[in-house]
User: What shape does this take?
Amino acid sequence: MNILNLYGSLNGHTEKVAFEIEKAVAGAGHAIRTVNVKKDDSVIDLLEYDLTFIGSGVYTWLPGKPVLNWMEKQMAHARKNDLILPGSPRVPGKFVCVYCTYAGPHTGEAEAVPALKYMGQLFDHLGITVADEWSVVGAFVPEKMRHFNASGRLGNIEGRPNAEDLKQVREKTGGLLESIRSYSVV
Ligand SMILES: Cc1cc2nc3c(=O)[nH]c(=O)nc-3n(C[C@H](O)[C@H](O)[C@H](O)COP(=O)(O)O)c2cc1C
Assistant: This one.
């Protein structure tokens, strides 16, 4: 399979997850192109890829600026080229996995949901099926916000994403590849 791995990351947590995905995908023998949209926000033909991963940190419930900006460019391109059709007909064999890293200090797991849904909508509008949504815990890095790491709804999240979180990402990546591979064979 041909796989795209997009991410935006302000403090490096989402980048860690993106690199785990890259390792797991390459280890399974698939071609993967990893793009940090903060460094390269070029428009991409998303239908060239069988599976896209897209991830961002959560900032006030939504993806961070790099991913929001990239999505805006992609949407402008899609509109200009009439790629968004009524009913958003499915493009067979094209999938996306959306994920975020988040701290959930106020409302816990619910705080990851708007960012996941927001990122998924771009792909769903293009007919690309949302195959999975992952939320990975990522602690606050700025000193003045670190008190949230021990006092929020998710309990003590200092040091996350940790080795166990990243192991889960590798395992879930393997599971998703297997699921999509068997779907495209059928
Ligand atoms: C300014 C700022 C705002 C944040 N806002 C939220 C938020 O609204 N909800 C949340 O769950 N996490 C929030 N976080 C935590 C980040 O989403 C989390 O640390 C994430 O792992 C950062 O990912 P990144 O380093 O890849 O950008 C915020 C962090 C910062 C620094």
Summary: Residues 9-14, 57-61, 64, 101-104, 111, 138-140, 142, 145 surround flavin mononucleotide (CB under 6 Å). Helices lie at 13-27, 65-80, 113-125, 148-151, 163-185. The longest strand covers residues 51-59.
